[in-house]
Design goal:
The chain is mostly helical. 70% of the residues lie in helices and 6% in strands. It has one domain. It is built from 15 helices and 2 strands.
């Protein structure tokens, strides 16, 4: 008899309210520009990300220490999944998307980033063996159509294939793959660790890579000398780290622990909706009729999904054979 065995855990549960934890957590990412605009006047995106993760490390290191006994469950494949989440989702995807915006056409880069749900759904079916209900295809099309209208209206983002194959567009596709994969890997790891431990490890493991990226770009830290300006930058960094950083991912992973990755990736579409609302409320950008239509389509999709009850397969858990009956009872 082998020492360990993997058992799938099946249970029926309503998508709501876990689904809405993912929606709210993703929506908090949309407030990021409120804090990032001031920071970008003095720091690069990589420097900002590094400082954010230093702050998050200070908050989450005690949390990880509290849950340190869970680390004994980790195997090599779990470490690989965690590195994919932290290095791929937290660090490299952000850098690739930022570089894409700098070197490519804005519209095509934004459109190709919207491929993230497609990659997440394909990976969830392949890696987690998730089965989708018959209505999911229509809901997916509805959500993507709403996101397109929210971003571009009835305009075409590019006119020929050569624009799509620019370096910036390819970087955007790479970012979409990494973000979609991070959703799936996060769902996988939540079958091994609780959401507090996964959140902590995502931030903490990203630090070495971000430090290497900052050292590699060799950019000067152009911080202001005035105490008032430094205090304002510090406040923005703190709020950015805690709201679209820590709080958003705690809610996100708490919800993701109880729903399918394929549903979670659609819940993440609350992010562009909040971004549009922030642009309207704070930066006085006009909301068009097509954006309102897109907004309605996305929220209709979210409401329909939140009311569904699905048979969910939990990610694999390593269970001792002699304890499997007790685990099944729980």
């Amino acid at each position: 008899m082998s020492n360990m065995m993997s058992l799938p855990i099946f249970k029926n549960q309503a998508v709501k309210p876990a689904f809405w934890f993912v929606v709210i957590g993703s929506a908090l990412w949309g407030v990021d520009p409120l804090f990032r605009i001031l920071l970008l006047e003095h720091l690069t995106s990589t420097q900002i990300a590094l400082l954010e993760h230093v702050i998050l490390f200070l908050f989450m290191a005690p949390v990880l220490w509290k849950h340190r006994q869970q680390l004994s469950k980790l195997k090599l494949r779990h470490v690989g999944a965690l590195l994919f989440i932290s290095w791929g989702g937290s660090a490299l995807a952000t850098v690739m998307f930022t570089k894409g915006l700098e070197t490519g056409d804005l519209n095509s880069v934004l459109l190709l980033q919207k491929l993230q749900p497609l990659f997440a759904i394909l990976m969830a079916r392949w890696l987690l063996k998730e089965k989708l209900p018959k209505s999911f295809g229509m809901l997916f099309i509805l959500a993507i159509a709403g996101t397109y209208l929210l971003t571009f209206g009835f305009k075409l983002p590019f006119t020929n294939i050569s624009e799509m194959l620019q370096a910036g567009s390819l970087m955007s596709i790479g970012a979409a793959v990494l973000w979609g994969g991070s959703t799936v890997m996060g769902r996988y790891m939540l079958g091994v660790l609780n959401y507090e431990a996964v959140t902590s490890l995502r931030f903490i493991l990203a630090l070495p890579l971000l430090l290497a990226l900052v050292l590699g770009e060799r950019q000067i830290w152009s911080l202001p000398g005035e105490a008032g300006a430094m205090g304002l930058i510090g406040l923005n960094l703190l709020l950015q780290a805690l709201l679209p950083g820590l709080l958003s991912l705690l809610l996100y992973y708490k919800g993701l622990s109880a729903i399918k990755a394929s549903y979670a990736t659609l819940a993440e579409l609350s992010f562009p909706m909040v971004g549009v609302l922030i642009n309207f409320a704070v930066f006085q950008q006009v909301i068009t009729v097509t954006q309102i239509v897109g907004f309605v389509l996305i929220w209709t999709t979210l409401l329909i999904i939140s009311r569904q009850k699905e048979r969910i397969v939990q990610p694999e858990r390593d269970i001792q054979p002699e304890r499997s009956a007790a685990a099944a009872a729980v």
